[in-house]
Amino acid sequence: MEAVLESRRKERLDRGIKVRTDGIYAVSSWREIAYLVLPRLLLIGGLLMMPLLLSQAPYWQRVISIVCIYSLLAISFDFLAHFVGLVSLGGALYIGVGAYIAALLNTHFGLPSWITVPLATILGGGLCTLLLWPCLPLRGVYFAIVSLMFPLLVARIIEALDIFGGTDGVLGVDGFSSKWVEMYVLIAVVLLILFGLRRLVNEDLGLVFRGVKDNDQAVKASGIDVITIKALGVFIASAMGCLGGAMLSHLYMWAGLSQFALDFSIIPIAATVVGGGGTLAGPVIGCLILVPISELLRDFGTLRIAVYALILCGFIVFKSEGLMVYGSRKYQQFERWVQI
Amino acid sequence: MEILIYGIVNSVSLALMALGFTLVYGVSRLPNFAHGSLYVTTGFITWLLLQRLGVPYLVAMLISLVLIGVVGAAMYHFILVRIRGMSISEIIASYAIGLAILEGLRWGGLKGTTHTLPVFANGSVDILGVVVDYHRLLVILLGAILVGLLWVFVNRTRLGLALKGMAQDERAALTLGIDSDRMAVMSMALGGVMAGLAALVLLPLGNIVVEAGYHVLIMAVAVCIVGGLGSWTGAILAAFLIGFAQIFTVAWLGPHFQVVVALLAIILTLISRPSGLFGRQKELEERV
Q: Do A301 and B263 touch (CB under 8 A)?
């Protein structure tokens, strides 16, 4: 440790406009309204414009859909980790379960995609919650380890029992009627869930969720069953993941073991860390950055996993607050050096 | 009889895989999810030295053990020390490092079945009607020797006792002049060497493949959780439990279920006895 005494420190103060827009006074002028609305419009408008801007590049339009699916997963990870306090390293479980349910409903019962996707969301969420139910009393590292094992376990069991097409997967799933439908449905779903969840975590239920995370004894003492609340949180998160998985299986017209693969567990976590945990919008931004990088590196095979593992590692060690937190701090506060 | 002998071999292998992991966790409370990648890296370095540079086998093994110890220590000293105590960040960061190493190796050409290490001794022997090759017997012998050496190291040397002190009570150790950061670096280096030793003993039985890294990690985690994290005797007993359970399932159900057994063991243990079969009660509160 160097014993250099700093003679100045950095002071952070909220901008006046931030304070004014916190309350009802937000509607007092266009400037205040714009201050609140512009960042949100930027994200919404940007996402909605993206397919049109990329209409000359069909390959990158597919990437948009993939970004949205990863975003769903990343939001669900962020929600579980930072609002319910369950770090789930096995996002692949949700994707896989959702994909298989949608694919099976489609190929065996001939249901169209606008029925299979919602059904897979609900059924898949329920199934994942049931699977994870016994592990819900666990906390922290232990839940993380168990949840990491689950997708591996399910994939092995499918492989070993040779059910659902075994290693070949379920083939011949219907695609979407057009790529515009697929992209805009996904974008709309991501935006709805993003803003819906931001609402939810500030409601009473969100308060209970955060109580479970910060001090579950206090929640228990208030006469609320911790396990039920955790199960509800897991249901919400896994339903989002299953929705992504169901869309994915219709997108690729296929469901297979690779949907339980590592990619789906690690990219959302990396995106959350890069984008900023606990913000819900951060993970989406993280996905918008990381997934295209991973697509660019597709030619290098498994190097891309190495690359985003390193990005993840760098961010978590050196810049653990993430882009979103950093950005909103710059947006809402000004900093200056003051002499001590 | 076959089940007994191969069960013992399998159990000792599992114990070898898990010892490094449980050592690091026991001393510095760091779940080292890069354990499997250290294991594979040792094998790969040895293979490089042996097959490409023509270094004698024994020398190659020694060099790679030293190198992997340095890698482990560097990993802690430069990266993991910054997030010490934030358990989730520790898991994610060490897992990310491990992934980067493994997938980097795969990209760098470590795939297929061309990477093998020679066995220590050729030939096989007939024990009560079961044919066992010498190397598998050596695994049992070396495993027993390593566990013995580790026990002596921890209980009889200054450094070992310092590590043990860290594991038992970090603050008390600090007041007695044991530098906890240095000890944690030591434990990571030692954990790396343990992973390396396991790799050198076990890899000649098969190919050096990237998948082995994930396999070793799962097995190490399974053994440590079933045995109670940080408990060494627990880890060894759990290795035998899982080792025999695996051999039984292979005999009756088929080889596909081998990993399923380990994963089920983790899940069942965490659900029914969260502190592991031999873990201490104190830790229970942290887990549930």
A: no
Q: What pTM was computed for the model? A: 0.83
Per-residue tens of pLDDT for chain A, all 340 residues: 455 667 888 888 888 888 888 777 777 788 888 888 888 888 888 888 888 888 888 888 888 888 999 999 999 999 988 888 888 888 889 999 999 998 888 888 888 888 888 999 999 999 999 988 888 887 777 788 778 888 888 888 888 777 787 777 777 777 777 888 888 888 999 999 999 998 898 888 888 988 888 888 888 888 888 888 999 999 999 999 999 998 888 888 888 787 787 778 888 888 888 888 888 888 999 898 888 888 888 777 777 778 878 888 888 888 778 888 888 888 888 888 888 7
User: Rounded to a whole number, what is the distance in Å from the CA of A30 to chain B's nearest CA?
Assistant: 42
What span, in angstroms and rounded, lies between the C-alpha atoms of A52 and A47? 10
Contacts B97 to A, Cβ<8 Å: 309, 313
Contact between B106 and A312 using a beta-carbon 8 Å cutoff: no
DSSP three-state, residue B206 = coil
CATH class of A2-339: mainly alpha
Cβ of B107 and A300 within 8 Å? yes
Q: Domain residue spans in chain A?
A: 2-339
B119 touches A at CB < 8 Å: no
- A269 neighbourhood in chain B, CB within 8 Å: 92
Domains along chain B with CATH numbers? 2-120+130-287 (1.10.3470)
B31 touches chain A (CB under 8 A): yes
Helix axis angle, B2-28 to B180-202, nearest 10°: 160
